[in-house]
Specification:
By secondary structure, this protein is of the alpha+beta class. Helix content is about 30%, strand content about 30%. It has 6 helices and 9 strands. Bound molecules: coenzyme A.
Length: about 180
């Protein structure tokens, strides 16, 4: 899908393909240390990307700059919840589902932060998730309390805070019904 952002740049939104592996690894290496600290849902090597691609419960999505094909945004969803987040999420009295919940982690290349790209990528992924019968989206490992940009981004996109937890600093769990 082609989309024009407010800055008049045309981007492509689509599912990640196995052929994108090298481009995705290059995208990861190009992120600043600050962004890498905020976004670490999985390791960015060939083996991990291929095994996630083969697992029907995971789906990656990319945003590409139309004229260079460079990846400028990447998000991943897992159908259901993460096993290691389960007890923490259940402590909020959530009734978790491996069919109607999904777990979500977004990222945008540093030069594109605040451009509206995160929002169009999010909407694209959520439309796909709805088609899979997903009704609720949970943040992958929460969001760091110091990550103001992401927290504002999530709130603007309809997420609410469930509670907070300590893991390498303070974090919020956030959720949204879709
Ligand atoms: C979080 C992230 C995906 C959002 O994508 P984005 O393209 O920057 O977001 P958008 O441009 O769509 O911005 C949406 C909202 O985010 C907030 N936002 C954007 N830039 C901001 C800034 N510099 N400071 C504070 N809030 C900001 C605003 O509420 C903005 O709304 P606006 O359009 O009215 O300005 C992106 O910033 C990112 O990759 N951050 C690093 C990785 C990360 O933190 N991932 C999430 C881990 S939990």
């Amino acid at each position: 899908m082609f989309i024009s952002l407010q800055n008049n740049q045309t981007i492509i939104l689509r599912k990640l393909d196995l052929q994108d592996t090298e481009l995705l690894i290059a995208y990861w290496h190009g992120l600043s240390d600050e962004t890498k600290k905020r976004f670490a849902p999985h390791v960015f090597d060939n083996q991990t990307i291929i095994s996630l691609h083969k697992d029907v419960n995971y789906q990656g999505y990319i945003a590409q700059e139309a004229h260079t094909s460079a990846i400028i945004g990447y998000a991943i969803i897992k159908i259901g919840y993460l096993e290691h987040d389960k007890s923490r999420l259940e402590a909020y009295y959530l009734s978790l589902s491996n069919t109607t919940d999904c777990t979500f982690a977004p990222s945008v290349a540093d030069a594109w932060h605040g451009s509206g790209l995160g929002t169009v990528l999010f909407n694209f992924v959520m439309n796909e998730a709805k088609d899979k019968g997903i009704k609720r989206v949970i943040l992958w490992g929460g969001v760091q309390k110091s990550n103001m940009r992401a927290i504002r981004f999530y709130q603007k996109n309809g997420f609410r805070i469930l509670g907070q937890f300590l893991y390498q600093g303070e974090n919020y769990d956030m959720i949204k019904e879709i």
